[in-house]
Design brief:
Number of strands: 7
Strand order of the largest sheet: 3-2-4-1-5-6-7
Number of helices: 13
Radius of gyration: 21 Å
CATH topology of the largest domain: Rossmann fold
Distance between the termini: 45 Å
Bound molecules: guanosine-5'-triphosphate, magnesium ion
């Protein structure tokens, strides 16, 4: 490693970028080096870290709102790492909108780091890179935000990596209706109606959502889906949004949900790595995916790459006798 890990922890941009690049190297030859790096990062993960998913249909103002969210967190003394996932169709020019906003931030501020990723580049690539990026960010920043385009559901499996999920909609678009119909009220913890400067439409959207909320079933006992109105055009609502996000994080940690969640996240990470290496064949050799999941859960998972290696050994051991029989 030709960079100082302390520089990474301090958020020095060059060092952070370097660490990210190292972890994206998926060659087996880099496994040992990456294992050591993940070890260091995991041991230094900030206890205060909060992973937030910001998701919603194209053009509702996610990026515009992010500018305010980042600014507000910075003014509250929190450092912020942002991962934006761009759908490839929009990147290749099939954009629905010619007026996409960029997140505005101070490039000289070491308390903010933006990483953008193209979805659909190759199979599993996004999940892989998001998780590695998270490992770096969790050691460096207090707040980690993942911005993805989605109409809910698990296109990006955001609920698997983010403790708090905020779903952004805009008034008068039909998105809200679709959202309610799809029955995806269980996924987000916070609902945001952005562009609430469109007063009449926003009021109606708010009413619709209030009604829909009474029919929704919260996936989390004790937490009621929160509703926040914002305007990234006029610059209001974001403070209240952050208050709600913080409250949700408190809720998670007080209920002990956060620790369980982090553990589950690590199990899924090992499963992902394992699937990538061996495909369904690997699961078959070890008696099925559920069994493998249990095996992983039985032990400490501080380092997913280490757990992967242990499973790898098991696969080879189990396979050898079968080979000998042929
Ligand atoms: N009136 C109004 N317009 C807004 C508001 N927020 C964003 N916009 C506009 O909506 C358009 C889309 O905003 P973006 O921030 O790019 O939306 P996005 O959700 O990030 O879009 P994608 O990344 O393409 O999914 C831009 O023209 C913004 O200026 C708002 O609060 N009120
Ligand atoms: Mg955007």
């Amino acid at each position: 490693m030709d960079f100082n890990i302390e520089d990474v922890f301090r958020g020095e941009k060059k060092a952070v970028a370097h660490a990210l690049n190292l972890l994206e190297d998926r060659r087996p030859a880099s496994l040992e080096q990456n294992k050591a790096l993940i070890e260091k990062l995991s041991n230094n993960a900030r206890p205060s870290r909060h992973v937030i998913g910001i998701t919603g249909p194209p053009g509702v103002g996610k990026s515009s709102l992010m500018t305010y969210i980042i600014r507000e967190y910075r003014s509250r003394g929190k450092t912020v790492g942002v991962i934006t996932v761009d759908p490839s169709s929009q990147r290749s020019g099939g954009a629905l909108l010619g007026d996409r906003a960029r997140i505005v931030h101070d490039p000289n501020d070491d308390g903010v780091f933006l990483r953008s990723m193209a979805a659909g580049s190759h199979m599993g690539g996004l999940a892989w890179r998001t998780r590695h990026c998270l490992t770096v960010f969790e050691a460096v920043y207090d707040i980690i935000i993942i911005e993805t385009v989605g109409v809910g559901q698990s296109e990006t499996e955001i609920d698997q990596v983010a403790g708090t999920v905020a779903f952004i909609v805009q008034p008068g678009s039909g998105d809200i209706l679709q959202f309610m119909k799809a029955g995806i009220m269980e996924i987000p913890h916070v609902l945001v109606v952005n562009k609430a400067d469109q007063k009449a439409l926003a009021a109606r959207a708010r009413n619709d959502l209030m009604v829909a909320r009474t029919y929704s079933q919260s996936a989390l006992e004790g937490w009621e889906l929160q509703l926040v109105m914002t305007s990234a055009l006029e610059g209001w609502g974001h403070k209240e949004l952050i208050d709600v996000l913080e409250r949700h994080n408190m809720f998670l940690s007080e209920k002990g949900i956060l620790e369980a969640f982090r553990r589950r996240k690590r199990i899924e990470w090992v499963i992902m790595l394992f699937r990538e290496r061996f495909g369904t064949f690997g699961f078959e050799v070890l008696g099925g995916e559920e069994k493998v999941r249990k095996m992983i859960a039985q032990e400490d998972i501080n380092n997913p790459l280490e757990r992967l290696q242990a499973l790898e050994k098991k696969v080879f051991c189990n396979r050898l006798p079968q080979r000998a029989q042929r």
